[in-house]
User: Fold this.
Amino acid sequence: SPADVARVLRQFVADVGCGVRFANGEHLLSQSLFLGGNASAPSPVDMLLRLESLPRDIAALRRRVGHAAPELCPLGRERAQAAKPPQVPSQRELRAVLTADGALMQAVCDLLMTDFLCLGYPLPQGCAVGGTRRGRQGRAAENG
Assistant:
């Protein structure tokens, strides 16, 4: 149910925000963290490959490095919704939950804010720069 999805997503976002360790948890971290060097000195970035344009970006990378050999392992769609277990909410269901719960949407955005700002992704509708909705509302009330 949407209420169950919202409850699980709320707890998941809280856990990620608090640094709770998950199996394969590095996939939940901000991509900016990896580009910034994690705990080490950052390395220069010459090119970003984006999931939404990955085939085009890989082709550009291949051209840039002069790799003309045929691809041996073309990209697939292994994580398509049809291949997921039925209890995994669809993108549409998750979007509906986030649209209905502005505070939860902002919490997800807060986790990924550096990616939005540093990597040029547009903020989703309902997200704002400047911290959580609760934090902004609290500051507004304090300032009168």
